[in-house]
Amino acid sequence: MSMSIEECAVARPGFPKPFPETPANVTEQFKMSGKVTVVNGAADGIGLAVAEGIAEAGGHVALWYNSNDMAVTRAEELARAHNVKTKAYKVNVTDAEAVQRTVAAVVDDFGQLDVFVANAGTAISKPILEQTLDEYKFQMAVNVDGVVHCAKYAGEVFRRQGRGNLIITSSMSAHVVNVPVDQPVYNGTKAFVTQFGKCLAREWRDFARVNVISPGFFDTKMGASDRCVHEAYRMAVLGRQGHTKEIKGLYLYLASDASTYTTGADMIVDGGYTLA
Ligand SMILES: NC(=O)c1ccc[n+]([C@@H]2O[C@H](COP(=O)([O-])OP(=O)(O)OC[C@H]3O[C@@H](n4cnc5c(N)ncnc54)[C@H](OP(=O)(O)O)[C@@H]3O)[C@@H](O)[C@H]2O)c1
């Protein structure tokens, strides 16, 4: 049963909490100078755009990759172009010990961890009746276990520091049943991480913010396949896939002091796909 109006009128000790001591000027709020961000899946696609956005705003970036070692070159390019510190790390997010070790290595190398962008993902887009159990387990390992591993070990650092910020790349597939290709396992993994992120926003309320970004189709390796691309154009109100430059600003917003009152949010950026 909810509290009565009289019970609610009693002030609770420690509330309201103070406003943050952040700049009032919005361009100052977006600056990432002095902050350290990990982005995984950072060699290409959405993750690379996120790493670029953070570096363009003056932040230091640890670019995590699994198989695409272009991350090493990209890290060097970003450091040169924006006069920030960067480093590439090879880590498979399905390996909990590797994630724990690499989070510790980032803290050793950079001295702190302010933002973790859990962006790595994979999809084997098939109906469950055509999917093998190994394919199911593989998607669960990357999309679910991988996010849990990253959240757990980044979260331990956030709690120790007394501050932190986790951003999870989910998908509009956590909200709708994509058409025309049935892919219940991928969609289910994304529904898990969306709800997981919201729950962490509450669990970590005293020391960290947690938010979720749910992209629609973006023109990357994981974007609309030949089998569904024309339907993707038809379903998106804007009539196309997104370009990765059209989403990095949202990651920067959530990573920066522009969003200090935003936690537990799930932001859909899908060109209007889920309106239908
Ligand atoms: N593009 C879309 O239409 C779309 C829509 C909704 C959601 N998303 C989500 O957006 C995120 C980024 O995808 P993207 O579109 O940018 O495609 P992408 O360029 O293929 O990025 C996927 C990234 O995940 C990394 N990855 C895969 N397995 C990994 C593992 N075991 N350990 C560590 N990293 C691993 C890959 O790293 P390596 O290349 O180094 O192996 C790759 O950089 C994914 O979570 C995806 O589900 C994408």
UniProtKB/TrEMBL annotation:
Superkingdom to which the source organism belongs: Eukaryota
InterPro entries: NAD(P)-bd_dom_sf, Sc_DH/Rdtase_CS, SDR_fam
Keywords for this protein: NADP, Oxidoreductase
Biological process (GO), any one: mannitol metabolic process
GO MF annotations, alphabetized: mannitol 2-dehydrogenase (NADP+) activity; oxidoreductase activity, acting on NAD(P)H, oxygen as acceptor
Family designation: Belongs to the short-chain dehydrogenases/reductases (SDR) family.
Alphabetical list of PANTHER family matching this protein: BENZIL REDUCTASE, NADP-DEPENDENT MANNITOL DEHYDROGENASE-RELATED
Name used for this protein in its record: Short chain dehydrogenase
Species for this entry: Emericellopsis atlantica
